[in-house]
Amino acid sequence: MKKFVLAALIACAGSAMAADGAKWTYAGEGGPDQWAKLTPDNFACAGKNQSPVDIKGAVHAGLKPLKMDYKAAGNEVLNNGHTLQVNFAPGSTLQLDGTQFELKQYHFHAPSENLVNGQSYPLEVHLVHADKDGNLAVIGVMFKEGAENKALKALWPQLPKEANAKNALTAPLSAASLLPAKHAYFRFSGSLTTPPCSEGVRWLVMKNPVTVSKEQLAAFEGILHHANNRPVQSLNGRVIVD
Ligand SMILES: [Zn+2]
């Protein structure tokens, strides 16, 4: 299980090809409803604890405030054909469940993958953390259309326009500037939203969106050329807490 998760984390920063060469996409022959069949490695894509989900009916559980300590350690941005991703040097941490998770990378989905009470947002960022055993925790933040986003303003001009290209960032970035002012959040168990769809991922989705301008959205969409959101998956009895 943990080998799969680690492999997925690497795959996320790597190529579009699975081990056997089966190519996954967001539409058509290699689309989401085919992911589980493309290679045996993708068996989890047909699992019962998959992401993304429609976040609704949260049970109040008095979740503890999240403890992040983010450093300006994002040092390169990658276009892997599926998303645009900022990779981090070690040192940015999330304390969760008595364990330290390290921020590895963040990447974007347009439109959002998770929904909140049935509502889609034009953009969602996923901050991907791993503990020393390879267990994953992802913080999701929704963007609604509005004022220009200052954090994206620094990043957007540096996005590689070609797939499988990466750029060193001119100045290191912190993930802290992507978070809303208030950190109230939903929590649930889910999976990676791309093959191999490994489960056991701790999902933490911020309740409050941040803003992105129409121009910033258009710039992102102009680089990726296609939507990169997996459709929402059934909760299958999972409980969302807040
Ligand atoms: Zn993602």
From TrEMBL:
It catalyses: hydrogencarbonate + H(+) = CO2 + H2O. InterPro entries: Alpha_CA_prokaryot-like, CA_dom, CA_dom_sf, Carbonic_anhydrase_a-class, Carbonic_anhydrase_a-class_CS. The keyword Signal applies. CDD domains: alpha_CA_prokaryotic_like (cd03124). This is Carbonic anhydrase. Its cofactor is Zn(2+). The keyword Signal applies. The lineage of its organism: Bacteria, Pseudomonadati, Pseudomonadota, Betaproteobacteria, Burkholderiales. Belongs to the alpha-carbonic anhydrase family. Reversible hydration of carbon dioxide. Residues 1-18 form the signal peptide. One of its GO terms (molecular function) is carbonate dehydratase activity. Keywords: Lyase, Metal-binding, Signal, Zinc. It comes from Pseudoduganella rivuli. It holds the Pfam family Carb_anhydrase. Its EC number is 4.2.1.1. Residues 22-242 form the Alpha-carbonic anhydrase domain. It is an enzyme of class 4 (lyase).
